[in-house]
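Now for one specimen:
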Amino acid sequence: MLPNFIGIGAPRSGTTWLFHCLRDHRDVFVAECKETNFFVYDTIEGRLAEYEAHFQARKNEKAVGEISPRYLNSPLVAERIRSLVPDVRLFVSLRDPVEQVYSHYWHLSRQNFHQWDRTRVPQSFEDALDQYEDKLLQPALYAEQLRRWLAHFPADQLYVMVYDDLRARPESVIRDLYQHLGVDESFIPQSLNARGTSVRAGVSPRGAFLGSVHSFLHDQANRNLYQPLKNWLGVKRALRIKEGLRVRELLEAVFMRKGYPRMKDDTRLMLRERLRGEVEALSQLIGRRLDGWL
């Protein structure tokens, strides 16, 4: 079967917390593989059974779906989803774009930018902005992205959350999300207060050398362990083994510390100005003041 709800983003905006709160609900089935990323594949022709396999374990749950933050920014996904599941319930969580870009940078840095150009690994946030400005900023252009989704889906099918609310009033946010998905909104998920509002807290290297070692080991584990397992056993089984081995957690415990270094003031000011127009457009689009993002 196909899902009747999909979380579409944004990256680094609380989607892991949302994933766990949804998985806790007795009337919700969420794909075990967070970020199936099915609709961003180069082609999905002839691969629908591969996608449906993510939902085969459902029982009698009313809401069945997945969360893939890369969907929001893709120019292909909204039209693809509309063609397959036109009545799907969608939701998105949006974060202060400057903070989103910075958090996304550290996420990519931990992975040694392995999905981009391995030969040009940035040595700082500023270097990354010089090398990959479009790739780093594009996911934070929320107004542009939401307009594309709203061209394919009516507004009442898309529930927009703001990351600030996830932090300040998580119970209210998750109640509204449950209501949007048509399940018991009075349910209190076990994960509601997990690490404040995020099961995956941000981390950064304890030092430049340790960061390099972490990136090397992460890259080796991904290429020589996870990818072969995925090719051999399939995504779901490989994911279970990966999570069971807790390689990511072990590497982070040794090489990482909680939180990020303070962003340079002039870099922050530059990004605020760069993204100001986009924030103002988003504010008008969703009918909410976002003064704290300006």
The chain is about 50% helix and 10% strand. Strands lie at 5-7, 28-30, 63-67, 89-94, 158-162, 203-205, 256-258.
